[in-house]
């Protein structure tokens, strides 16, 4: 039992570093935040911080990998499913939940697009989005239906990125965006509705 306790503490420290770093990146910007400031906010030495992460980029990449793991799992799941309306609705639902769980990181990425593009995560985001679009798109439907399928995905993004300042509960905003996205995907599948 005592052997698992140090592992848990290390994991908690890693998580705390990620949380504090993201908080500072959002407050001050990625470029203006130093490892020294992260260590100070954590009340640890820079050496203790270096034990877990050597650079700010290491921190943001690890955060990105942790937060987006459910999206990778969703893509793998969806690739094994039939391309039915029900599967696509489930993809949208799970994607919406994954985005909500990583809201702070996605907002950081939105507000720091240049930094995101420069880091290796930018290309990964683009590849995931293209893959999700392909999983949602109708293969042979009219162009308007293909646009509906793509728009469904980006409706979820709009709900998170551009409606974050709307009065009310963020969960209600997420659910409203999911409802609109689901309506769009349903409209694109006339024969399945």
UniProtKB/TrEMBL annotation:
Pfam families referenced in this protein's UniProt entry, alphabetically: TetR_N (PF00440)
Top-level taxon of the source organism: Bacteria
HTH tetR-type domain sequence ranges: 11-71
Residue ranges: DNA binding: 34-53
Keywords per UniProt: DNA-binding, Transcription, Transcription regulation
Family annotation (PANTHER family): HTH-TYPE TRANSCRIPTIONAL REGULATOR BETI, HTH-TYPE TRANSCRIPTIONAL REGULATOR RUTR
Protein name, entry field: TetR family transcriptional regulator
Native source species: Streptomyces amritsarensis
